[in-house]
Amino acid sequence: MDAFQGTIHGKNSIIPDAEDGLADGNARQAPLRRISSENWSKHPLLSSVNTKMTYTLLLDKIERLELESDSKTKELEKRLQETENKLGISPLASLIPWRSSSITRDGPVDSTLITNNNTKRSTFKLTPDMYSILACWEWSTKPFWASLFVVFLQITLLSVLIVDLIGGATVDNILNLPGNVEYTVRIAQAVAVPIAVFKQEDLREGIEGIFLGMPHAFRGDIKFQSMKPIKWRIGYFLRFAQGFLSMFASFILLIQAETVFDLLLNFLGIEFISDLDNLAFRLAGIGYFGITTRDCVNTISEAEFSKDEKDTGVVGVAFSPSWFKKYAHILGVFFIFIAMVSSFIFYAAQQYDGEYLTSTVRVEFGDETLPFLGIFNGCYTARSDGTIAERLVYEQMGRSTMQGKLAYCSGLDDGSWVFFHEGDDPCNNPIASSGSTKTFDVLETAESQWYTNTGLPLEYLQIYKIDETDTCGSRDLLDATRDTCLTIEFELEGQSSTFQKHQLSASDGGEALDAMRSHPIYVSANGSNPEVVIFTGRRWVLANSSNLGSWENTTALLDATGNEEFYSDLLEANDEWILSVSEPVDRVNDQGTPLGLQWYFPRDINDESNTTIDFNFRISDLTRPVDLACTSCNSKTNPCLYEGLCRDTTGECECKHGASGKLCREKPLGDGICNTYFNTPENEYDGGDCCADTCEGVDCDDSSIDFPFGIDMSKRGNASRAAWFEIVFGFDTPQNTFGYDECRDPDQASFTIEMKPSVWRFFDPEAPLITSLLGLDADFDWFNSFYCIVEKVLLTCDDKPYMELPAILDASTDYDDGCPTYRQSFQVPYGASCEVTYSNYMQFLRSEDINLLVKVVHSFDENPLYEGLSQLGDTSIPTFPWDVPLSKCITEAFSNRTKSIFDKTTIEGAVANSLSNSGRAIEWCENKGDRGILFERFGLEALLMLLLGSTETIGGEVNHCSLQKLDEGFFTRCNDDRVLSLEIDGDYYTTNVMLADLLGLMQSFPQLQYLGINGTVLNGPIPVMEIANLHNLTTLGLVNGRLNGTIPTEISSLQKLETVILDNNELTGPAIPSELLSLERLSTYAVSNNRLGGSIPVEIENLKASLQTLHLNGNEITGTLPTVLGTLEEVVSLKLEGNQLTGTIPSTLGNLRFALELTIFDNRLTGSIPNSLQNLRFLSTLKLDGNELGGTIPGLGMLELLKIVHLDSNLLTGTIPSEFGNLSLLSELTLFSNRLSSSIPSTLANLTLLEVCNILGGNSNMTGGTVGVCT
């Protein structure tokens, strides 16, 4: 107890006084100071002796054992915490020196504090960045997650950057380093290495924080009560990770830089990413992340903490010398610096030795600018005996003479890669160059423009890095094509030449082959001076060998091609050596064979368009193709065409489908015989042989139909049955047919003939005798069979026969339910005049119920073009003529707009048929941008014909928008041939037309804005769907008709609607449907003189910004006038007369500042006339008569524009205001039938325009006589 007393009351007591902030809950701000026992006992949280004893003893023990045993201290701290929680006195934790903040009311403590155990302490502050928030704040708080987001963003950016920098790296060059760099860049890199290391403060602070650990001073500070060792470690580990990633990215960027500018620019980018956490911290401090985060930043910025000199590292480390912890960050940074310097030296040495330069490349020159460059195509490898200008020299593989070379010339264009083939000096007579560049690797010039030594740009040059799949310089391509097509054939100006394939021997060209000799050679068997097909590196050419030298035979020529000097001779050959040349070849389409390429004649050397600077390799003439084919077939590599069969043993083809020639290449097109295999668009439908209109061959008239009406003629009956058919009906039964049933040309019109005969049965009792006499098939069941007769049909168009089908007797025992429908399709050209004739053999039958239904149907038409019924006794031969529409486009366009384009008896059919023969309409149709005009023309003509009750059209060539008046009572207004306005005066027309039919045709006018219809054509309800589809309508007027039903709410879908006028009809239902109040542009709404009811909805206020005219007069509207009418400040005319309105006139009507007309007469209104009407300065007409209004007449003398005032037939009292005399424009004044008194004001005599003035009648209390016209 003495120890207890001494701890509390002794001179070393450290308990703060309650008056210094403990009592009000601010213990964490209490300074370290000695207090008396009296103040201690006053603390409200320590009011009991037991509490003071328990708590003080724990504090004393922990303080004495703190530096002796961590495990004991932890145990006691746990007990202390439990006591605090139990007693609810956790704020007293700040009374302990090593758990207290060094921030007091009196300011920060000194750098050294002496506590009761004389432990020396130093002060420190947290780093002002987002990592400190991450370490200090609770997981669930906004500052913690804000800091975590910034840290995640920072580390992610650095990680993505590093992945991008080393993306695509190889094992030999894991950092994607350039081949080499200039000395100035190397010096800048050396200087940048230490900067990259020592500039990273986050790296150093991260190491220091990890090894020194969390100071004990945090344990008792309430502001940082969530600070835990694990959060400290996580925060400083993330700080270290960010610093390390920044340093690593900096190292990669600096060693990848090829210029000093790039190096500095890269450093700035890394510095920006590294500083994101500091930038975010500063932004958070001024409130960009919210108030909570701002307060957090301020707390961290101001906080200072005391730190024991013996604070030792991370919790849980068993042994760690204090000197190592103290200097760990220095050692770590030093070792990282040594590693970076070593890496830099290693990679710089590798670059200097050329380890990262491309050793072998493939080069493909084009021959468009320098035709001979193709012979230098192939693979180039780096020379092993030295460099030029510290860069590799590349030499063409497979050559020892005429060898192409790539090297760097520092004296050309301030340094440039060049191509040459003579000597070893790249600057001496180069053939082509890359332009100015400092790159050390020739591969990097692949994307640059190369130029000739005369300055012309090379149109094509590709430089590739050799990969594992490249066969460059090997015999793989030769081996792969060794057995492919041993014989080829050229077709030159009607002359064929055959060439045999030859391969180079194994010794030719050594182990490596250039691009030319890695391909086979084809030689003709012409004896001396044979022709040869060789690969020049860029193209295959057919050459006349006599222009390349003199050869005794093929063997001599082949021996020469194995010699490199043969290719050098190509540069010196005369300009006639090329007979044919192929399209260009590159590594993508190079298959090692001249087959599969397009061949051409060379362009004439005298052709002015031949702009190449060297004519030895003459460019191709694209207008003169040459045919090359492999004449020997192979099932796998060179199959026969068009399903032909290849006999591999002989290399010959067995052709099918009428094809012929070598490899079956010749198609049987245009021979007059329809070949269904070639009846395809790509073969122009067998060259037109399958259609009557396009067939031009000698055998066109022999085209037959194998299955007329779908019946197999070969199986329809034997000869005896045919004879029976002839005897019964008296006509032949020819087996031959004529027609083009395989015609598939989409540019022709398609039709179908349908025949539906009645079933006929043979019930003649003498049938067995007839069968016996005629020798008919005795096995055929004549009596139990059902017979269907398909008539003979003849089709002609423009006097040319298109189809002839025989009459057919189809018999079966399965036809007891009736005959099937027999169909035969055919095609005829658009614009043709056709005629169908069919026989009527049914007249020979002896049955009474036999008939035949015949139809002709167009493919786009749901209704038959012709429909005829032949019956017993009808001896005529039916013939049906018709004209096929001129345009396929018109036919297709109207296929879904009219039931039948051919039925001229209907309005739609008549209009469509008329337009189909109009050249102007066809132009509209074929130009898809004008097709809408065509449909509008269709709609206008159909409308006019509907109104007139006629099928006469306007005339195909008349422009419907060039006329202001198409007909009396029918007006249009257009813009760019599109109908915008349509007015119909229905009183002019006498036909009975339904409004639904009219509006249905309005769908043809998608841009229609104004629609006005009046008169008797308006009857029935307003069609809902038709009206709702006029999406661009701004004005709708349907007046003076007999419309009934309600106003469709679907009108509200017309969001562009501004004017609705439905006056003088028989409409019922609500006068203002609530749905219409959503029309934000509605300015005029007039429904006068109908049978509409309901009340005026208060939601009319929704139209206050747009409504200018509201006419509801002449209806059956009830209820009162809503005060919201006064919000319609844009209203100019308000007409409500002739209804059943009650209540008073709201004074808010005085807010209608632009009102010109206000008429509410003939209702049941009461009350007085509001004085607010004096505010209507623009008012011209005021009619309130026929109500029950009382009170006096308000002064209206200020309304100088008033012309008409009707207040009669009310209950008005008082005198007539003399101010009426000021209304100089007044022409009508009626005040009779009221309760007015006094006399007529003399001032009314001054109104010179006053024509009607009725006052005295019905006002019995008035005296005096007339004044002027007023009686």
Write up this protein.
The protein contains 25 helices and 54 strands. Helix 24 (995-1001) links the parallel strand 36 and strand 37. 24% of the residues lie in helices and 19% in strands. The chain has 1271 residues and is an alpha/beta fold. The chain crosses the membrane at residues 144-166, 236-257, 327-349. This is EGF-like domain-containing protein.
Largest sheet: 14 strands, mixed
Round the Cα radius of gyration to an integer and report it: 53 Å
Please identify the structural class as seen in this structure: alpha/beta
- Percent strand: 15-25%
The strand line-up of the biggest sheet is 34-35-36-37-39-41-42-43-44-46-48-49-51-53
InterPro entries: EGF (IPR000742), Leu-rich_rpt (IPR001611), LRR_dom_sf (IPR032675), PGIP (IPR051848)
Keywords: Disulfide bond, EGF-like domain, Membrane, Repeat, Transmembrane, Transmembrane helix
Pfam families: LRR_1 (PF00560)
Main location: other
